[in-house]
Amino acid sequence: MLTPGTKLPEVDLFDFQDKAVHLICFFIQGYLWSGVGVKKQEAIKSNPRIWKNFIVYGLLAGIILESLQQFIPNRSFELMDMIVNGLGASLGLLGYLKWPFIKFILE
Predict the structure, then answer these.
(1) How many CB atoms lie within 10 A of CB 87?
(2) Distance between CA atoms of 46 and 17, rounded to whole angstroms?
(3) Does pTM top 0.85 for this prediction?
(4) 77 in helix, strand or coil?
(5) Is residue 10 a contact partner of residue 30, using CB atoms and an 8 Å limit?
(6) CA atoms of 87 and 11, how far apart (whole Å)
(7) Is Transmembrane helix included in the keywords of this UniProt record (predicted)?
(8) Using DSSP, how many helices (H) and how many strands (E) does the chain show?
């Protein structure tokens, strides 16, 4: 995620592919964070605010990673990437709540 811009492959399949990659990566990250060490029913009963914490953590990760890119050669900060990162992390959490398949893998 913090690779210098000159090391990135030049692939242009469709418009906004960069945003799609950010969304997919942060969706997966948010989904996995939601599943690691947390059993859905137990977590909701014992601490319903835990899901808000996952969203905040996902948003912070997106903000920090995007902010750090301005210090990497040939990379730049983009507000829209930061927004898409947060959206992906939030959708990952919602995806886990709807389809908690990872729970069975981690147990």
Answers:
(1) 19
(2) 40
(3) no
(4) coil
(5) no
(6) 23
(7) yes
(8) 5, 0
**Cα separations (Å) of 82 from 4, 46, 62?**
18, 31, 6
Block residue for tokens 């920090």? 64
Mention every residue, 6+ apart, whose C-beta is less than 8 A from residue 17: 11
pLDDT in tens, 13-64: 656 788 899 999 999 988 888 776 565 556 556 666 777 777 788 888 888 9
Secondary structure of residue 79 in the 3-state scheme: helix
What CA–CA distance (Å, rounded) separates 31 from 19?
18
Beta-carbon count within 10 A of 100 CB: 16
